[in-house]
């Protein structure tokens, strides 16, 4: 169209100036009108389009600068740091809790030197806290194995926090004498202060009383300066219990209260060693338990939702266990492929870990305890 404009304009000029002066004005008026139509309209349309675009941009919600930065951050796949690791080095246990979700599927335990090599790899990758768990950690070499690992992590690796979760039944005072100084926190599992309920759950062993044992451990922790913690799994058999008094008397630094969780292949499903369906409680029942104990300041609740994917779990082969699909799918061992490669398959949700308060004052040096 624009190539036609100069040609048409020249034709109009020639015909205009070829006429006598009297009719010149009459000819100029349509010429000027034509010029306005050809040159002015497209400009007007363009400016209208620009106005429309500006209006559309104004109507879209504005993104704050920080919002943009957050999106950029999520786009970059940062390697996960194994800040806090739970190493279930054995699956063997002397108890038979009906809801256990780390069952005795193998009897394998790594040689001590290999376990230490793996722990060194984790420390180099950014580990600050290690928690030894099982099965029952004190079953291997009568506690010597876990003692050696605890000492290695504190003395050699200088980790800020070293802890153990145990059912407490196999711990002797001699162990505290030898290794207590290297341990920050000892968490003892206790689901009920009624011995009959403990037996029903599977936390009983003959004449030994789980609750009496708990008292003894509390005293040793005070004597050997180890922070004392209690873990309870709330389930069908203890959901109506009132534990306020007993917890206050034991005064743990932390009382972790878990909602009973089903894990395919561990405590539910065809190839599982347990069938925990009869232990499960609803979210409302769990909330009811928490409400009853809301005055306990050290209580840290953990619903199924919070537990999901917020723990870095290493099994007996030092493989990360991915619980994203409701079962425990293992990665390759960190001893074979290194931490960075194995952790990609861990399913670990670092945001959820922080959201559930996974990072807390976890070194006894910082706890400022009144022993
Ligand atoms: S004490 Fe722990 S590891 Fe042992 S059976 Fe009970 S839940 Fe499982």
List keywords for this structure.
371 residues; alpha/beta; eight-stranded parallel beta sheet; two-stranded antiparallel sheet; 15 helices; 42% helix; disordered N terminus; binds iron/sulfur cluster
Per-chain topology:
Blueprint: H1 4-17, H2 24-59, H3 65-75, E1 84-88, H4 112-124, E2 129-133, H5 144-156, E3 161-166, H6 173-179, E4 185-189, H7 195-201, H8 210-223, E5 227-234, H9 244-250, E6 254-259, H10 283-292, E7 299-302, H11 304-307, E8 313-314, E9 319-322, E10 329-333, H12 334-337, H13 339-343, H14 350-355, H15 364-367
Parallel strand pairs: 1-2, 1-8, 2-3, 3-4, 4-5, 5-6, 6-7
Antiparallel strand pairs: 9-10
Family: Belongs to the radical SAM superfamily. RSAD2 family.
Membrane topology: Peripheral membrane protein
Keywords: 4Fe-4S, Antiviral defense, Endoplasmic reticulum, Immunity, Innate immunity, Iron, Iron-sulfur, Lipid droplet, Membrane, Metal-binding, S-adenosyl-L-methionine
């Amino acid at each position: 169209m624009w190539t036609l404009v100069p040609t048409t304009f020249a034709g109009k000029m020639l015909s205009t100036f070829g006429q006598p002066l009297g009719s010149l004005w009459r000819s100029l008026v349509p010429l000027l009108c034509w010029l306005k139509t050809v040159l002015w309209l497209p400009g007007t349309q363009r400016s209208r389009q620009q106005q429309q675009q500006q209006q559309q941009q104004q109507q879209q919600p504005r993104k704050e600068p920080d919002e943009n930065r957050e999106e950029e951050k999520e786009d970059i796949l940062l390697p996960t740091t194994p800040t806090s690791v739970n190493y279930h080095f054995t699956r063997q246990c002397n108890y038979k809790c009906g809801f256990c979700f780390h069952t005795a599927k193998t009897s394998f335990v790594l040689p001590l030197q290999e376990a230490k090599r793996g722990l060194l790899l984790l420390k180099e990758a950014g580990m600050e806290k290690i928690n030894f768990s099982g099965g029952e950690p004190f079953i291997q070499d009568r506690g010597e194995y876990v003692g050696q690992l605890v000492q290695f992590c504190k003395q050699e690796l200088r980790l800020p926090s070293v802890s153990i979760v145990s059912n407490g039944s196999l711990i002797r005072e001699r162990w505290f004498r030898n290794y207590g100084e290297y341990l920050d926190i000892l968490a003892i599992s206790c689901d009920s202060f009624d011995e009959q309920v403990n037996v029903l759950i599977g936390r009983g062993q003959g004449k030994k009383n789980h609750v009496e044992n708990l008292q003894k451990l509390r005293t040793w922790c005070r004597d050997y300066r180890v922070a004392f913690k209690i873990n309870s799994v709330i389930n069908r058999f203890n959901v109506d219990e009132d534990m306020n008094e007993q917890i206050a008397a034991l005064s743990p630094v932390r009382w972790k209260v878990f909602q009973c969780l089903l894990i395919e292949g561990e405590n539910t499903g065809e190839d599982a060693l347990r069938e925990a369906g009869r232990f499960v409680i609803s979210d409302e029942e769990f909330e009811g338990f928490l409400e009853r104990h809301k005055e306990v300041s050290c209580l840290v609740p953990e619903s199924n939702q919070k537990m999901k994917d917020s723990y870095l779990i290493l099994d007996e082969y030092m493989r990360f266990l991915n619980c994203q699909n409701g079962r425990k799918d293992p990665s390759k061992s960190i001893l074979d492929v290194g931490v960075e490669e194995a952790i990609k398959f861990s399913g670990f949700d670092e945001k959820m870990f922080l959201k559930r308060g996974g990072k807390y004052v976890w070194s006894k040096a910082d706890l400022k305890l009144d022993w």
